[in-house]
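Submission sheet (multi-component)
Chains listed below:
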Amino acid sequence: MMPGDDAQQKIEAYLGRLRHILRDMNPVEAGEIVEELRSHVLDKAAPAGQVTAAGVDAALAMLGTPEELATQYTTDALLMRAEISRSPIRILASLFRWASLSLAGFLVLIASIVGYFLGGAFMWCGVLKIIHPQTAGLWLLHHGGDTWEISVRLGFATVPPDARDVLGWWVVPLGLVVGCALIMLTTHSSLWCVRRYRQSLSLERL
Amino acid sequence: MKPPRAPLDQESVNKWEVQLRKGCLELAILAALWDRKLYGLEILRRLESDSDLIVSEGTVYPLLSRVKMLGLVRSEWVESDAGHPRKYYALTPAGKHRGREMAETWARFSTSMSQLLAPLAKEKKEK
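Outcome: structure written.
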């Protein structure tokens, strides 16, 4: 049975919003999700007879908001991709999508960016020490009197003459190990947060 | 020293029950699809009629998508008399295997728990 104009508009508005939120997902997958929900709403809104605007409202309310639904699909896809590849770039790309849907996603994204940035900086510091042995590494900079500053330097700028290289060549293995550990810890923590959040969403709506 | 009080309020009991139902949901979906292919709304209705699982519609569709990504079910679009196509789900061989394994685990677990809980149930009857 074809829905009336008002009912059709409500369905299109809801599915249009959902399609927009899922725009970064594989277009075939996103299209299937949207069409399946359209089919569900039409079945649900007209158990016997004409699809009415009130029936559509009730059916859409039972599904939840497009944002809530999209969050479940998005976090599932993120976790599924993470099972296949633990690439920080893939994880960050998925977290960007999640961050636009919820505050929890935004906070996890910020924490992940900081974690990956620090991990990357430590690793680069270790690698660049080999290329710039006189200027890269962990340095103690003297600002006069008793004021000292610890600085991780990648070797692209000169070092003041009274600065001290704290770790020397040890920064190479330590930078690589600490950097790797930070990146792995960030990946693990991000996925743990996503799993917990995903689980809480299911429980809320069960 | 006073012994700590166990938080036995209704809310914590409800939360525990929701966790329990959530844990069964994947098995329930595989069981609903065991002997025939069904579309989303039919799965929801079957869960409601054949079990005590009343699942939100906003939960079941993402879950169906997830079990499909895991390769446990496959889907196909079928034209219907209602005038719009419906997406039917059916178990894959991997889904059948997973369903059998989960059902065996469930049977073992529920038998042992029933034995353990028998005195509690008996006490409740006597009251």
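Remark: The helical segments of chain B are 10-32, 40-50, 57-69, 93-126.
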